[in-house]
Design a protein that fits this description.
By secondary structure, the protein is mainly alpha-helical. The protein folds into 2 domains: about 10-70, Homeodomain-like (Arc Repressor Mutant, subunit A, Orthogonal Bundle), CATH 1.10.10; about 75-195, Tetracycline Repressor, domain 2. Helix content is about 70%, strand content about 0%. The protein has 9 helices and no strands. The protein has helices at about 10-30, 40-45, 50-55, 60-75, 85-100, 100-115, 120-145, 155-175, 180-195. Helix 5 (about 85-100) packs antiparallel against helix 7 (about 120-145). The termini are far apart. InterPro entries: Homeodomain-like_sf (IPR009057), HTH-type_TetR-like_transc_reg (IPR050109), HTH_TetR (IPR001647), Tet_transcr_reg_TetR-rel_C_sf (IPR036271), TetR_C (IPR011075).
Length: about 200
């Protein structure tokens, strides 16, 4: 069975083309939004042949899916501070810095908006967050092992609880969160987890 367009990880010149195209696609998303994303325009910006872009990705949604996969792979690894509170504050800080960044913040806003009306983009966005949550979930499991959180705490749910208020504020107010918002979100998630809110009933 052949792979979906844009999902094969190439090397050499092909890798350089992919990097240039994904960078150009991200620029268009950040500057103009999903509805203005056009493969021919992306090819022009990336200085590659239009035929190459159409052959490799085939559609705007395939290109966005590959962009999100690349972003998930390139995101910073989780931080180990020795405490679940410290780890989750680091996670919240990473989310806050991403949303505050002019390019990244605009890019995420565009992709999230597109995901609301395009199922393939929604699937790609879910995969992106699955990768990121899986990267950070071990810090919660380690907190349980150290006795900082109750046994049975759902690690993935706790990680999502950290970033949820940051994204909600970002999308509903149009204002990026600040470091105090990030710290408060992490502390609230830790407090709820310690109270057993995220413990899975057995």
């Amino acid at each position: 069975m052949s792979a979906e367009p844009g999902t094969v990880r190439p090397g050499g010149r092909t890798a350089r083309v992919r990097t240039a195209v994904l960078r150009a696609a991200g620029d268009v998303l950040a500057e103009q939004g999903f509805d203005r994303l056009d493969l021919a325009d992306v090819a022009r910006r990336a200085e590659v042949g239009k035929t190459t872009v159409y052959r490799r990705w085939g559609s705007v949604t395939a290109l966005v899916a590959d962009l999100l996969a690349e972003m998930a792979e390139q995101s910073l690894p989780r931080t180990r501070t020795g405490s679940v509170r410290g780890d989750l504050r680091a996670n919240a800080s990473l989310v806050q810095r991403t949303l505050t960044d002019p390019r990244q913040g605009a890019l995420f806003r565009a992709v999230i908006a597109a995901a609301a009306c395009d199922e393939r983009t929604a699937q790609a966005l879910r995969r992106f967050y699955e990768v990121r949550v899986a990267e950070w979930a071990p810090c919660v499991a380690e907190g349980v092992a150290r006795g900082e959180l109750p046994a049975g705490t759902d690690a993935a749910t706790v990680v999502r609880a950290v970033s949820a208020p940051l994204y909600y504020g970002f999308l509903t107010t149009g204002t990026a969160p600040d470091p105090a918002d990030a710290e408060r979100a992490a502390d609230a998630a830790v407090a709820a987890a310690q109270a057993g809110v995220y413990a899975i009933a057995t």
